[in-house]
Write a structure and sequence with these properties.
Radius of gyration of chain B: 23 Å
CATH architecture of the largest domain in chain A: Sandwich
Shape of chain B: globular
Number of domains of chain A: 2
Number of strands of chain B: 15
CATH class of the largest domain in chain A: Mainly Beta
Strand order of the largest sheet of chain A: 2-1-8-7
Shape of chain A: elongated
Order of helices and strands of chain A: HHEEEEEHEEEE
Strand order of the largest sheet of chain B: 1-2-6-7-10-13-14-15
Strand content of chain B: 25-35%
Largest interface: A-B, 39 and 53 residues
Oligomer: heterodimer
Number of strands of chain A: 9
Structural class of chain B: alpha+beta
Largest sheet of chain B: 8 strands, antiparallel
Order of helices and strands of chain B: HEEHHEHHHEEHEEEEEEEEHHEE
Helix content of chain B: 25-40%
Strand content of chain A: 35-45%
Radius of gyration of chain A: 24 Å
Distance between the termini of chain B: 50 Å
Distance between the termini of chain A: 65 Å
């Protein structure tokens, strides 16, 4: 081993050092890659609220008709109350999988789950 | 003992692992916006330098432009002005093309698809806080003078046979808006994208080097899909009785009306159509749903480039001959 190090030139050592640092940065990035799902509220380009799905909370979201109450618990999001006429957004139940949406069209509230795709779902989009 | 080559090899493997986990130069953008009374979702991917953000914003803007043109809920839209007009009306090129396509499907489906159900939709008010079951007299009044023959289209000039007739392009305009959004994305150099307007969708190109995989919603199980299809450069539209409805005395009343009775069509639970354009798939899905499984299948047979999956009222599944070509392996 000592002989091996002795035989290495300064260039060899520099190359090994650079390669090692690059590998280390890559592994560090991998370890810190996002793994949990989060919730994003907005309409179009405007994001009005974001939260991690594991952070339990209830928030009031202001829309043109009034306040839509959103609850996050047990890793899922659901709308508890809304000033819209038919309450379709409440009847949509809870969402927790990446790509799932909750929408209150009359009050212009759009809730999206982003994060790691759910295992066991074999499609990219759902036609409904 | 580790040789110099082995040390370098080990580091090379570590480097490879790191490179594999580094962010790809391929970018994917996923955005949603409320347009035409529904959630529109656009997913676009490509090189980061392509300006995906600009392209997607332009696509949304285009859909809002179509909404301002063809919505019956916007007072000064072209469609609203047409409904208020008693005499001949000169249409824009776009409105004329959409209405011509709608009238063609209306005629070939023997009126199962109908562009003149504005008053009937208002009467039922399915999307309102208080949808109601109309009386037979109210239905007869709302249906007076409707049907494919009620509209006379000559080039860009449209004449209604009855001044009181109100058009509703809800069964085709959303699809047309998606088609326009896709056209705008293409103009911006986007080669891979999906535009999904509440179930009316077009899949442009491929996703990560393979066809798009689209699940078909199960009409009676909220969190389940019927099957998965693989498509590329095709439209996929599903019409079902489970999205917009109300229940009264145990009976479900949904928004897909049979123009012959004025009542919700009862032959199907859902219909999915794959076609070249979303506007056509949109109109065909409604027409097949209203016609029911047997007559609906015959209509689809007349459109060689369209395929369909029909879930009958009793839950029985049937599909057109070419549907199997789109089915993903289980």
């Amino acid at each position: 081993m000592k002989k091996l190090w002795r035989d290495m030139s300064r260039g060899d050592c520099s190359v090994i050092l650079v390669l090692f640092l690059i590998a280390l940065i890559g592994l560090f990035w991998q370890a810190n890659a996002p793994t949990g799902a989060r919730l994003i509220v907005g309409d179009g380009d405007q994001v009005s609220f974001t939260a991690e799905l594991h952070q339990e909370q209830t928030v009031d979201l202001e829309g043109p008709l009034g306040v839509t109450r959103l609850n996050i618990s047990d890793g899922a999001a659901r709308i508890l109350a809304s000033p819209c006429p038919r309450k379709i957004c409440i009847s949509m139940g809870s969402v927790q999988r990446s790509g799932e949406l909750l929408a209150c069209v009359p009050n212009r509230i759009l809730v999206r789950i982003e994060g790691v795709a759910e295992e066991g779902v074999d499609y990219d989009l759902l036609s409904r | 003992m580790l040789s110099r080559a082995r040390i370098l090899g080990l580091i090379a493997i570590l480097l490879l692992l790191a490179w594999w986990r580094l962010p790809s130069t391929q970018d994917e953008l996923r955005r949603s916006r409320l347009v035409m009374g529904t959630v529109v979702e656009i997913v676009a991917s490509g090189d980061a330098t392509q300006g995906l953000d600009v392209a997607v914003s332009a696509a949304f803007d285009e859909m809002e432009r179509v909404e301002r043109l063809l919505s019956r809920y916007i007072a000064d839209s072209e469609l609203s002005r047409l409904s208020q007009q008693a005499g001949p009306f000169t249409l824009s090129d776009e409105a004329a093309a959409v209405i011509a396509l709608g009238l063609d499907v209306a005629k070939r489906s023997d009126g199962a698809f109908d562009l003149t159900l504005g008053r009937l939709n208002d009467l039922w008010a399915i999307d309102s806080a208080s949808p109601k079951l109309p009386t037979p007299a109210q239905l007869a009044e709302a249906m007076r003078g409707i049907g494919p023959e009620a509209l006379l289209l000559n080039g860009q000039t449209l004449k209604k046979r009855s001044a009181a007739l109100e058009l509703d392009l809800g069964g085709i305009a959303k699809g047309y808006a998606v088609d326009r959004a896709i056209a705008v994305l293409k103009q911006h150099g986007v080669a891979s994208a999906a535009v999904n307007a509440g179930g009316d969708m077009y899949l442009l190109g491929e996703l990560h080097g393979r066809s798009w995989r689209i699940g078909i919603q199960h009409p009676r199980q909220t969190n389940a899909s019927l099957e998965t299809v693989q498509v590329s450069n095709r439209a996929v539209v599903t019409s079902g009785d489970y999205e917009r409805f109300f229940e009264q005395e145990g009976q479900r009343y949904h928004h897909l009306f049979d123009p012959k009775s004025g009542l919700p069509a009862r032959g199907c639970r859902s219909v999915t159509v794959i076609a070249d354009s979303v506007a056509l798939a949109d109109a065909l899905a409604t027409a097949v749903f209203v016609l029911g499984p047997r007559a609906g299948a015959e209509l689809l047979h007349n459109y060689p480039d369209a395929e369909g999956l029909i879930v009958a009222a009793d839950g029985t599944l049937s599909s057109s001959a070419g549907w199997v070509n789109y089915q993903a392996a289980p």
